[in-house]
């Protein structure tokens, strides 16, 4: 299992130094960079000879996946930019969670939303295929977005589109928030190409860095994915924090203890 961290680009040197196998960076951050800023980051990554495995947080409300603001033209232009930049970084996966891009007004036609999301993913995966990049749709809990809240929703989309480079990210945080069993994944794993997790303090929906108290949960996940033959990439996906230098090494140590 390769263990990575979702964190801003400014941390790439520290992530490598700690020992993570790769960094996963936010598509939103990459998209907002000027050409000069992006080229500087790409040059730093190359000089470090360190993997950027993929993008999380692919887009935001400026590029809606569903809703009245959805636009095929906007989705295509964004995909062209992001896939070209991703290829320059050598990424393998684009994770499409993007809660801000999946907000709907009350009473919105869910069949229409499904058709919009399907078109968005088709456009994105078609562009990504030109570079050998996978597009991984992610179910997000219903307190952060209004569409595709259950793991089964993501799998349904993948099945309908039936594209070789379209699969899902399985995020155990969102599964738990929706009351799903994080160990009951036998039928899910054939569609999974990447994993996410984080620490969530009891009684909250906060996304924090993994701590030693998460070891029991992680062992359950390890046994569940091992039983399915998964040995791919697994990223910690916490919110950004000024305490990075303190918490990121602890998270890495816990993950390596459990997953080796």
Structure, described:
It is a single chain. This protein has one domain (2-259): Divalent-metal-dependent TIM barrel enzymes (TIM Barrel, Alpha-Beta Barrel), CATH 3.20.20. It contains nine helices and eight strands. The chain has helices at residues 12-18, 27-32, 35-48, 72-89, 110-129, 151-161, 172-177, 215-227, 244-259, and strands at residues 2-6, 22-26, 52-56, 93-96, 134-138, 166-171, 192-197, 233-236. Strands 1-2-3-4-5-6-7-8 form an eight-stranded parallel β-barrel, surrounded by five helices. Helix 1 links the parallel strand 1 (2-6) and strand 2 (22-26). The mean pLDDT is 98.
SSE layout:
Layout: E1 2-6, H1 12-18, E2 22-26, H2 27-32, H3 35-48, E3 52-56, H4 72-89, E4 93-96, H5 110-129, E5 134-138, H6 151-161, E6 166-171, H7 172-177, E7 192-197, H8 215-227, E8 233-236, H9 244-259
Parallel strand pairs: 1-2, 1-8, 2-3, 3-4, 4-5, 5-6, 6-7, 7-8
| CATH level 4 superfamily | Divalent-metal-dependent TIM barrel enzymes
Outline the low-pLDDT stretches. none
CATH topology: TIM Barrel
Structural class: alpha/beta
Order of helices and strands: EHEHHEHEHEHEHEHEH
- Give Rg in angstroms: 17 Å
The major β-sheet equals:
8 strands, parallel, barrel
Give the overall silhouette: globular
Mean pLDDT: 98
Distance from N terminus to C terminus (CA atoms, Å) equals 8 Å
Helix content: 40-55%
CATH class: Alpha Beta
């Amino acid at each position: 299992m390769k263990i990575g961290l979702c964190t801003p680009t400014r941390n790439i040197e520290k992530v490598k130094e700690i020992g993570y196998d790769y960094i996963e960076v936010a598509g939103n951050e990459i998209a907002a960079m000027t050409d000069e800023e992006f080229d500087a980051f790409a040059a730093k990554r190359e000089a470090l000879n360190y993997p950027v495995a993929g993008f999380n947080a692919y887009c935001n409300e400026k590029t809606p996946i569903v809703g009245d603001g959805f636009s095929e033209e906007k989705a295509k232009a964004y995909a062209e930019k992001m896939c070209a930049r991703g290829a320059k970084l050598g990424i393998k996966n684009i994770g499409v969670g993007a809660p801000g891009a999946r907000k709907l007004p009350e009473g919105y036609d869910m069949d229409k939303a499904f058709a919009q999301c399907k078109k968005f993913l088709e456009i994105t995966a078609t562009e990504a295929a030109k570079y050998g990049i996978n597009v991984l749709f992610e179910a997000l809990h219903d307190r952060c977005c209004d569409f595709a809240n259950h793991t089964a929703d993501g799998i349904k989309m993948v099945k309908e589109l039936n594209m070789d480079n379209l699969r899902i990210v399985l995020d155990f945080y969102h599964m738990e928030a929706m009351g799903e069993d994080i160990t009951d994944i036998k039928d899910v794993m054939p569609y999974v190409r990447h994993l996410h997790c984080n620490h969530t303090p009891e009684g909250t929906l906060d996304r924090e860095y993994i701590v030693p108290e998460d070891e029991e949960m992680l062992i359950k996940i390890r046994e569940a994915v091992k039983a399915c033959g998964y040995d791919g990439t697994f990223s910690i996906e916490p919110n950004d924090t000024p305490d990075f230098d303190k918490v990121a090494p602890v998270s890495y140590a816990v993950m390596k203890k459990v997953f080796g």
